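INTERNAL AUDIT FORM
Audit reference: QA-55
Scope: verify that the stored structure record matches its stored sequence.
Auditor: D.O.
Record contents follow.
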Amino acid sequence: MIEKITSSPHWHNNQTITGIMLNVCLALIPGILCYIWFFGWGILIQCVLAVVFAALLEFVVLKLRQRDPYPFLRDGSAVVTALLFAVSVSPLLPWWASLAGIAFAIILSKHVFGGLGNNLFNPAMAGYIFILLCFPAYMNAWPPATGPGVASVNLGEYLDSIFSISGTAFDAFSGATPLNAMKSQLGLMSTVSEIRTGPLFGHFGGTGWEWINFSFLLGGMYLLFRGIIKWHIPISVLAGVFLISSVFHLYDTDLYASPLFHICSGGTILCAFFIATDPITAATSNKGRLIYGGLIGVLAWVIRTWGAFPDGVGFAVLIANAFVPLIDLLTRPRVFGER
């Protein structure tokens, strides 16, 4: 009997970078469509602007690095970064702020570290936090969701707000998010039950945001089914948010919102399935992924509750990214034969 001996690797799952990025883009479609259904066409304009800016900057930077840009443009990583950035920012964000955020994400967070596969921090979240810190007024104001299919801002008003230099249109159309309203009114000594009677709030989270998060959950289930991501990070992120918010909600229901409110509002679901699962900036071992995801969930709730910003997802991801080398070191699997 003759055995055929081959060198490693012996097994391949036939996944390519381009295929993975394409599946992530497909999984984002339900959430983006739901965004449009509740908030109008602004989110689609932001997605188009972000993708165009990301592709142009990726091309220019790769040319400056004297590398062939076309293989890297075809892998789709810049498109995924752009889409994750676009669905995280306000639909009313001016075009120049979007350009600044994408430039920070592509140039400083990605290529300064060496490009795809070498970056320490999630580029989309780095660009998001940069804009949040530099232009907080634009990031914390959103159009109110008046009902399914009935956007409070029409296409013309979005175009005026996004491409207006003066910013007067932005001031006319903007409002607070449910997370922002909850945080500010708790600071004014209102109770959670009193706050939730307002028109911004639905059954579990904010009006419209419940369905948007559910749509992103469907996209996340698709990624799990296709084997693009593993369950460890999404489950641990949601568990981290749920457990710590449950403890404090049981301690004082008038001061701390329910776990379902925190999961169904803001970017919790988007973070759990699309942002925290970035294979480059996340932990590598299964135990490490559980620690990494749980850390993000707990930090997101802590920043939402006691921090200066209403949604702490972006900060939580970047802080957890910084801890990934330590997490990988402490959770390194035992080498075969090692005592």
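Auditor finding: record pair retrieved intact. Residues 17-39 form the longest helix (23 residues).
Action required: none
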